[in-house]
Design goal:
Layout (H helix, E strand, L loop, with lengths): L1 H14 L4 H10 L2 H41 L66 H13 L1
Helix pairs in contact: 1-2
Length: 152
């Protein structure tokens, strides 16, 4: 009998002729309140799980992004590296004299004997530029400064 009355109420609902008392009876027979409460609890559980997973993913992404930034640009307490000019110490060369040189005996007369000239070591003057750069210099300017330094 219960199913017959429920079928009749559903048929009236489909046709649009169901009144307020019939709608209340249909809700009672189909346990609408209990079904809706259970569905609401399941939906709330799904929303909670997705929110937790979303927050976890967001936190993990932020931590990994921070670690990547720290790895690429580590905080340093050191002073920036600066290129310095190195002046080699002058090594005195002894000129080769004719007396020290071993000359093989030959029948041809010797016209010219080459002697080694001492090399001049030029010391850097105070007004010469020193190549200094940090990570903000342009490559062309650094190369031209180095070229000037080496050719002077």
């Amino acid at each position: 009998m219960k199913t017959d009355s429920q079928q009749q109420l559903l048929e009236q609902y489909r046709e649009g002729t169901l009144g307020e008392s019939g709608l209340a009876e249909l809700n009672r027979l189909s346990h609408r309140d209990e079904v809706m409460a259970a569905a609401g609890q399941r939906a709330a559980g799904i929303i909670r799980r997705r929110t937790r997973v979303g927050i976890g993913v967001a936190v993990a992404t932020l931590l990994m992004g921070g670690a990547a930034v720290w790895a690429l640009f580590p905080p340093s307490q050191e002073a920036p590296m600066v290129a310095e000019a190195v002046v080699p110490e002058a090594v005195p060369e002894t000129p080769v004299t004719v007396e020290d040189a071993v000359i093989p005996e030959s029948k041809a007369p010797v016209t010219h004997v080459a002697t080694a000239r001492p090399r001049k070591v030029r010391k850097q003057a105070a007004e010469e530029p020193v190549v200094m750069c940090n990570n903000q210099c342009e490559a062309d300017s650094v190369i031209s400064d180095i070229w000037k330094f080496l050719t002077v």
